[in-house]
Write a structure and sequence with these properties.
CATH architecture of chain B: Alpha-Beta Barrel
Number of domains of chain B: 1
Structural class of chain B: alpha/beta
Radius of gyration of chain B: 17 Å
Strand content of chain B: 25-35%
Structural class of chain A: alpha+beta
Distance between the termini of chain A: 23 Å
Largest sheet of chain B: 5 strands, mixed, barrel
Largest sheet of chain A: 5 strands, mixed
Mean pLDDT of chain B: 94
CATH class of chain B: Alpha Beta
Largest interface: A-B, 45 and 37 residues
Number of strands of chain B: 9
Strand content of chain A: 15-25%
Mean pLDDT of chain A: 96
Number of helices of chain A: 8
Number of helices of chain B: 7
Radius of gyration of chain A: 19 Å
CATH topology of chain B: fumarase
Order of helices and strands of chain B: EHEHHEEEHEHEHEEH
Distance between the termini of chain B: 39 Å
Oligomer: heterodimer
Shape of chain B: globular
Strand order of the largest sheet of chain A: 2-1-3-8-9
Low-confidence stretches of chain B: none
Strand order of the largest sheet of chain B: 2-3-6-7-9
Bound molecules: iron/sulfur cluster
CATH superfamily of chain B: Fe-S hydro-lyase, tartrate dehydratase beta-type, catalytic domain
Low-confidence stretches of chain A: none
Amino acid sequence: MRDLTKELLELVRLASTDLPPDVEKRLREAAASEEPGSAARGAMDTILANVALARGNSTPICQDTGTPLFFVRFPEGWSPRSLREQIKAAVAEATKKTYLRPNAVDSLSGKNTGNNLGDEHFPTIHFEEADGDTLTVELILKGGGCENVGAQYSLPNDALKAGRDLEGVRRAALDAVYRAQGEGCAPGFLGIAIGGDRGSSYIASKEALRHKVGDVNSNPDLAALEARITQEGNQLGIGPMGFGGKSTVLGAKIAPTYRLPASFFVTISYMCWAYRRRMMTVSGEQVSYE
Amino acid sequence: MPTTLTIPIPESDIRRLNVGDTVLVSGTMITGRDAVHKWMADTFINQTRTPSGDDLEVYAAIKPILDGGVIYHCGPVVGGLDTRQYRFVAAGPTTSIREEPYQGAVMHHFNLRGVIGKGGMAAKTLQACQEVPAVYLHAIGGAAPLIAGSVQKVLGVYKLEFGVPEAIWVIEVKDFPAVVTMDAHGNSLHDGVRQQSRAVLDRLLA
Ligand code: SF4
């Protein structure tokens, strides 16, 4: 099996320093929607200048380079174990090259490992064997500030008048956006899972963030709800950094998943404006990035 | 258009500012977060511990910088630690609310004109903003390389024993971008946005 450590290092560099075009486009639209001269507009202009600067200098877009979340789809015959070793080597090398900040902290001793390698959950790597002979590795860097404002609701929820239906999902999502205010470095993107157990629901909410910003949900009811949550989230007027303004939620992706009869979880993962997400595709000798 | 503020900032400049105004700050300021605020309060304000080591020297050095000046809640990533040719690599703001127990007293004691951080602060700081007078300036969360770029020079460092993120870094900044979110007239943008968004949420969930 071929060694992809160098290619994986490039994936990490791209993710950390070069915001994907679909995200940047959305940030530009958000900036344009804010009143010239307003604090909100100033924040968005600063963010966009920062994005360009990071790309030009090949330095991290934000000092918090987050939890590295890898999603690997590999063809039959590849070894997930050696892919894991290569990913770990690439992450450690990326830390040395300051594409990543040392972020893996032992929860008991408080000690930082210094190379972003913790245990089997850090970095987080999901493997899935897939048909065909193409290998894809997706990487999301999930910041800590926005992770802290993520939320999980167990429906029904009396205070929100949220029942076990899509209307209940809408209520939970808007409550989460309100509670987050600007603290997750708004404007942000929502990954929303419906169902699962508490653990799988959080994973599904992160997987929802693998979609491109412009993707439309294949389920028309969910597509409509995503649009409504985005629009109503913006009506809250929290704005960039919580300064007040028109852009608070830049997109929502909903992922339904199976649940127990007894449970109905709605889980919201909040992704800050620094929505760092890149993919690498290996097809024969060819390696490409998007 | 952003308002330009030059340290030391005259009182009249501060009184002219209102929440929502964008500013560009230039001049010499210091960084300080949890360890620094506690050290200032314990040693010089409440005097619950006696100065030791270089405490008095450091105090004498930072006092004129802070008079009419600015403190920045920031734990920077600093390059050049081995050669002492320090430079700020990433210098985004850290969450300010942890300094709420100390901030008002520190502002009074040193005659501060501004506090830079993120997330806003609470009632005691807002009151001090009116009395001193001073403003709370919100920097853009995540814009670390851009802010590091506005740091022209690292002039020195004190209390490096607190650790790199917690030390007192003396920096010269030019056109540091921020937004006034708490002004000297008793207004807090954070309170206002929270109340307004609550009212909208209640309507959307009615
Ligand atoms: S929430 Fe995002 S933009 Fe804000 S500090 Fe964390 S990673 Fe950076």
